[in-house]
Fold this protein.
Amino acid sequence: MSNYENYQHVSRFYDNTRTAVGAEIIRVQLEASELPINQQLLVDAGCGTGLYSAAFVREVGKIEAVDMNSEMLDIARKKMKTEEKNGRINFHITSIDSLPLDDKSADAVMINQVLHHLPDNSSNGWVHHKQVFSEFWRVLKPGGKLIVNSCSPEQIEHGFWFYHLIPDALQVMKKKVIGLSDMHNLLAECGFTSTHQVVPADLILQGDAYSYADGIFDPDWRSGDSIWSLVSEDFLETVLDVVTNLRKSGKLEAFVNHHDQKRATTGQVTFSISHKIP
Ligand SMILES: C[S@@+](CC[C@H](N)C(=O)[O-])C[C@H]1O[C@@H](n2cnc3c(N)ncnc32)[C@H](O)[C@@H]1O
């Protein structure tokens, strides 16, 4: 459960600007396993509206999709009604730190853009991350794969031009995301091995909507990124005034370009791929 985003509300708009970004990277990992992809049991931890499950439900043997938010899960379920009926996917409303799955039952676990919703930060030692990784380790078969899709602190700093309009929220978000070396160490503590990280610098979480600067004025557009939940109503008014003035003075494009420059090298997302030792 997110302690800052209202997914009850956001569920209705989430798919307007979000897609299964990086699904190809996950597919390559699943296909590189010894067991053929169509026999694999895949866990989608924090499946949300089921964007990633939908990308794989006809390719893998079976998906166990888990989320704590009933509205997000309802949308996922509607999307994959037939596949649920056919036994290709099961939906579970529960927390990802307590999966309703047997030990050593899954071939792969994917977790896409969920970790920053755990009530952790750098000062509490990432305890909930550790619980979640340990739970993934429990349900994975020996040799199973964990694929984590997350943003690093550097990506929060440089990967999203509009975060520079909301610097306080940017700082809060930066503390909510685990650094790549801390993640690497934590995964090792939980028994995972040979972690490697893939940074696809060209992938953009909100797709084409990301560069539509006027989107800032649209609550649906803002629903595509939970950082806006860290911005007060009052400050949002100020931000919208700033953007209005930038636009009036013809400087909005320059602002976007300036704060988007480093994204070409940092990217927005990192995929961390680990193995459970056979
Ligand atoms: C940003 S959305 C990502 C959804 C989906 N994975 C995607 O990438 O489209 C985060 C999701 O994580 C879920 N979530 C957050 N913490 C959770 C937890 N502890 N257990 C289960 N689901 C959780 C939220 O309810 C929400 O649906």
Remarks:
- The pocket of S-adenosylmethionine is lined by residues 1-2, 7, 18, 46-48, 51-52, 66-69, 72, 95-96, 112-114, 117 (CB under 6 Å).
- Residues 233-248 form the longest helix (16 residues).
- The chain is about 40% helix and 15% strand.
- The radius of gyration is 19 Å.
